[in-house]
Amino acid sequence: xxxxxxxxxxxxxxAKKVKERMESVSGSQVENVGTPEALVDEMEKNGVDHxxxxxxxxxxxxxxxxxxxxxxxxxxxxxxxLVSFAAVHPDTAExxxxxxxxxxxxxxxxxxxxxxxxxxxxxxxxxxxLDAAAEEGLLVLVHAGMDEVYPDHIHxxxxxxxxxxxxxxxxxxxxxHMGGWQxxxxxxxxxxxxxxxxxxxxxxxxxxxxxxxxxxxxxxxxNQFTELVRLHGVDRVLFGSxxxxxxxxxxxxxxxxxxxNPEEKTQILGENARKLLTLV
Length: 280
Known about the structure:
Layout: E1 3-7, H1 12-26, H2 36-46, E2 50-53, H3 61-77, E3 82-84, E4 86-87, H4 95-104, E5 109-112, H5 124-135, E6 139-142, H6 158-167, E7 173-175, H7 184-191, E8 197-199, E9 208-210, E10 215-217, H8 222-232, E11 237-238, H9 248-257, H10 262-277
């Protein structure tokens, strides 16, 4: 079983605008049109059994709308392997009630993005979200490290991740981008071995060249990736592509060709996520 824990999709009416904006700001070539239909088509071409759709709320008014959309898409595309997470904003009111509703709706977890939500990861509001998610048995996937769109102000760096880990138990936490995009030296030193999960999204393949902002993103090579995986523990690493911002096909092929042994690749590409998401 192959599971992509980190995928994005947008309604058709805005997908083209999102694609154009991302390509303009980041210099990255977006791989597909970014709709849920395009996502499940991509999965079927690549032999991916499930992909997890991750919505992000940049204000509180978006939370209910995005979660209703996530439920609709899971109902419409679930038979083709789509799994939906929910959106929560740091300022979400009646947080426990919202989390209970997310769980009751069948959504498996939540996505938070400290940069887009302009809140530091160790802010008390995120700690409350993590605590409420744990109570409801929900996973939390957080953007970690730099974001190529907002490289000048990092809200979830290794220091803040460590502060959160000191404050609470986080076995339900998934750190995107191998623990912190473009911060892998510190991830290796301070995060590897911690009781959290990491995903591989936008860490192995992809192109970033934002010359006018001084951002040059270099992805992990085979040796760096293999070392991080084994230091952290292969049972806590999850395949993620960040599609459409990075090719699902290319990320899958990269892991299949890397130096990890076949058992390790099987765990990362699907077995770990299957257990985490309780999929059969």
